[in-house]
Amino acid sequence: MHPALHGFATGAGLIIAIGAQNIFVLGQGLANNHPVAVALTASLIDASLIALGLAGVGAALAASPWLCGIASLGGAAFLAFYGVKSLAAVRAGQALAVGGAGPRGCLPVVGATIALSLLNPHVYLDTVVLLGTVGSQHAGAGRWLFGLGASAASVLWFFAITCGARLAAPLLSRPAAWRVFHAAVGLTMLLLAYGLARTGLAAWA
User: Which terminal CB of the chain, N or C, has fewer other CB atoms within 10 Å?
Assistant: First the structure.
């Protein structure tokens, strides 16, 4: 398989999953809250982390259990906070707001996208460690063609879910539908936080 196609297929398989970053990007698309800026920011973060992995950073991180533990526990705390805010939004009956009283300005929502992406260790596992390891199997320029393919998968996915979410927004205009959305987000975040906390503690055991 051509390195770029290999990168696209591998990147799509890892990035297209229900996780904290994807849920946040989807939510901003549903709320029409600077979706293009959010999708572009998430895509650039993924591309940068993929490049770091291909440069050999992933292997160094995987070799340090203490660093993995710190990253996992920090990410668990952040996701737990985000999950509690989403569950609080269910009780408040908020509509067209993601994760509680989320940021509305362009710079704040971009900052939230960066924080939610970089404080989630799953992002590093998928991009830096896994894609970096698989891409390193290609020699020379093939490694970076693999990275371009994986980055293209990220760009297409994030812009697809933001644009698709805007099409689905009329179906979610009722507060009851948003309560279900907030509940699903909150429970997913708390489950992810629990899993990360266990991973972090296991790394230090």
Answer: C
